[in-house]
Amino acid sequence: MEPGEGIPQQIRQVLLFFVCLGGSLVCSETWRYSVAEETETGSFIANVVKDIGSGVEDLAARNARVIFDDYKPYLWLDPQTGNLLLNEQLDREALCDLTEPCILYFQVLLENPLQFFRAELWVRDINDHTPTFLDKDILVKIPEGTAPGTSFQMQSAQDLDVGKNGVQNYTLSPNPHFHLKLEDSDEGRKYPELVMDQFLDREKEPELRLTLTALDGGSPPKSGTAVVRVLVLDINDNAPEFERPVYKVQVPENSPLDSLVVKVSATDLDAGINGELSYSFSHVSRDIRKTFEIHPNSGEVHLKALLDFELIQSYVINIQAIDGGSLSGKSTILVQVVDVNDNPPEIVIASLTSPIPENSTPEMVVAVFSVRDQDSDDNGRMVCSIQDNLPFLLKPTYKNFYTLVTERPLDRETRTEYNITITVTDLGTPRLKTQHNITVLVSDVNDNAPAFTQTSYTLFVRENNSPALHIGSVSATDRDAGANAQVTYSLLPPQDPHLPLASLVSINADNGQLFALRALDYEALQALEFRVGATDRGSPALSSQALVRVLVLDANDNSPFVLYPLQNGSAPCTELVPRAAEPGYLVSKVVAVDGDSGQNAWLSYQLLKATEPGLFGVWAHNGEVRTARLLSERDAAKHRLVVLVKDNGEPPLSASVTLHVLLVDGFSQPYLPLPEAAADPAQADPLTVYLVIALASVSSLFLFSVLAFVAARLCRRVRAASLGGCSVPEGHFPGHLVDVSGTGTLSQSYQYEVCLMGGSGTNEFKFLKPVISNLPQLSTEREQSHTFLNGFGFN
Ligand SMILES: *[C@@H]1O[C@H](CO)[C@@H](O)[C@H](O)[C@H]1NC(C)=O
Ligand SMILES: *[C@@H]1O[C@H](CO)[C@@H](O)[C@H](O)[C@H]1NC(C)=O
Ligand SMILES: *[C@@H]1O[C@H](CO)[C@@H](O)[C@H](O)[C@H]1NC(C)=O
After folding, report:
1. pLDDT at 725
2. Which ligand ends up closest to the CA of 417?
3. If exposure means fewest CB atoms within 10 Å of the residue's CB, which of 174, 374, 689, 789 is most exposed?
4. Nearest to residue 736, comparing CAs of 568, 593, 599?
5. For ligand 1, atom 9, which residue shows the shortest CA distance?
């Protein structure tokens, strides 16, 4: 049963009453008809025959027709039947919109007579429209933190239908945050409101999607939906939070500037500026600010200054992150500086003793030093050493102190200086090394006596030197140094206290040069021996000595001296020569000696003058004077011969001797044979002269004496055998009288038997045998003398 069907019935009756009173033409009551909208075209509405009150045949005749007020032909009157039919589908919403009831007024017109009948067509609503939201996407922005209970008006939905077919109810998709509340508007319409049930959290759910459904009252109801997007607006309700409460990082010292230390990061759940973070240090020391910097946006912490483990081993850096709403989060960076072996060991010499005296006892402390390495662990652990092969030891002492001590006594004369390189190496990677050089000098101790370059020196000097002549040098060296090596030379006291050494030689104390103080005479002194000393200036002083032998070299300073025949005697010798003597008869023999030695004493003879040249000849090498031819009666009886004796020196010196010869008649009395010579049959009839020659080993003085003695004997023998007479000077030869050597060697002599074989005129002196032989070991010297005498003149 539709509610609308009852109401128009009542209204029709009221209207009918009113209309009929109004006029005569427009009669009676107003007809009322009703139709649902959207009813099919041609649908039957009503039959008007009865309402008109005439027959149906009348309708066509009277041209009955329907005229709506707006002249639109909504209905058609079938004149045959009187049925009112729907001429077109009616849309209530188009015809009346929201006006209710929707009434279309019309007249049914009849002609002949003209009659009007008022009528109304009530168009009934059907639920042919769904509720519609104008905006299908409803955006609601709600700040988080909004208090529960707050309501938010929603747009209402539209439904073209009216009445209960219009929007009757709203629903909301189930959700924990909102419920829907329906409010009545002033026009009596309902509109929806969102009421918040609990806090929104943008960080959990930044946006909610709800479905708002509008329902009409149709049966069945129609619905329309809209999406409600609840956008939760951020408030700064979250502080930034670092991902770690503590960042522990290890950074090697010596990391380059601008190295990345760590990158910190914080998050903020808020959005927009509330979530925009800025990193910074928080309450940090100036040191940290100098050393590190943090990038406000990236959170990277970089080195601003070089780290030095030796200064600071760790840093505690408080950092914060601040969002745009001034909320902050905190964290800490723990920076541990990692040691790098960047410090070489150091050596500090605390004391150094140099020079150190040689011969010191071992373990003498030379140097004290300390070592240090500022690195840690192995980087700071050290090994200390010196070179091998040095007589020094390194000893660790207190803490990091070392002492350098001697290993054994040092000898300055072996080595005066030691360059010691102290090497300290740490055990880091890479190993770092430091070296320190010290020079230790060894000071001298007087432990070496001066040493002569030779144990004995033999110096040669020619005799007759000028006084103060430099005759040679001795030299001694001392291996010590300084005063300990300063040598002073001196003459040592002679072993023979009578030797006047100090008057003969002197020595330069500084350089060891030896000087002859006076002229030396070879003939007086052939050799001189003494000792010299060398003393250093150490304390106590050390000394040594050497032997010096000075051999005087002979000079030709003695002329030959004629022993026979004697010249200065009161009765000169006269040689007797028988006129019957055959050529080569030995008349005489000139005997001469020379005080010099060697070649200076080699003598040669030559006939300088003769009374009768050609009668006599002199043998150059032995001084024998012999007849050169047979003598005759015509030859004068007396002859005088001058014989020159010359030595072999340079220049040569000479002496001359005069011989007197007397030619006598008859044969000469032969020399008496000596028993020893007579015993030898080969030596028959010789003029034999015994000569006893003493050859002194050192001094020729004795030889002279002996030769003088021999000459005297020879002369006496000749005088005894002839009529002539000779004399021998007594005493010593002038100038050769003093034995200056004082060596006592004069007693060492040789005696020879010398035979002058003058009887046949061809004989010569002959050494027969030594008479006494005291020193057989000097036979070499004796042989030389023999040769000189025997072989003279044949060179
Ligand atoms: C609206 O719809 C809800 C859910 O279907 C219902 O509980 C409520 O009673 C309805 N309100 C009206 C006025 O019809
Ligand atoms: C020690 O070093 C010094 C200076 O370098 C040098 O003159 C000297 O010859 C060195 N001595 C030795 C024994 O190496
Ligand atoms: C130390 O001496 C050594 C060897 O003579 C040399 O090579 C080195 O350069 C020296 N060191 C110093 C620091 O003088």
Report:
1. 38
2. 2
3. 174
4. 593
5. 169
Structural contact between residues 133 and 212, judged by C-beta atoms closer than 8 angstroms:
yes
- Radius of gyration (C-alpha) of the chain in whole angstroms: 86
Q: What span, in angstroms and rounded, lies between the C-alpha atoms of 454 and 451? A: 8
Q: Using pLDDT thresholds of 50, 70 and 90, give the confidence band for residue 263.
A: very high
Annotate 500-538 with b (16+ C-beta within 10 A) or e (fewer). Answer: ebeebbebeeeebbbbbeeebbbbbbbebbbbbbbbbbb
Which atom of ligand 3 is the closest one to the Cα of 436? 13
Evaluate whether 575 touches 662 at the Cβ level (below 8 Å). yes
Average pLDDT, the chain: 80
pLDDT at 247 over 50: yes
* Closest ligand 2 atom number to CA of residue 417: 13
pLDDT at site 752: 33
Looking at the chain, how many residues does it have? 795
- Lookup: tokens for 44: 């039957």
Angle at 545 between CA 541 and CA 546, to 5 degrees: 155
The tally of domains found in the chain comes to 6
Residues 603 and 727 in one domain: yes
Per DSSP (E only), the strands in 493-579 are 505-507, 513-516, 527-535, 543-553, 560-564, 574-578
For ligand 1, whether the C-beta of 169 sits within 6 Å is: yes
What are 620-657's pLDDT values in tens digits? 988 999 998 888 888 888 889 999 999 998 889 999 88
pLDDT tens-digit map of 542-573:
999 999 998 988 888 889 988 888 776 555 67
Q: Ligand 3 pocket, 421 CB below 6 A?
A: yes
Whether residue 723 is found in the same domain as residue 587: yes
Mutation probe of ligand 1 site: the residue of 164, 165, 169, 213 with most atoms within 8 A of C-beta: 169
- Are 571 and 685 in the same domain? yes
Is the CB of residue 721 less than 8 Å from the CB of residue 574? no
- Using a 6 Å cutoff on CB, does residue 419 contact ligand 2? yes
263 & 396 share domain = no
Nearest CA to ligand 2 atom 8: 419
Residue with the smallest CA separation from ligand 3 atom 3 is 421
CATH number at residue 485: 2.60.40.60
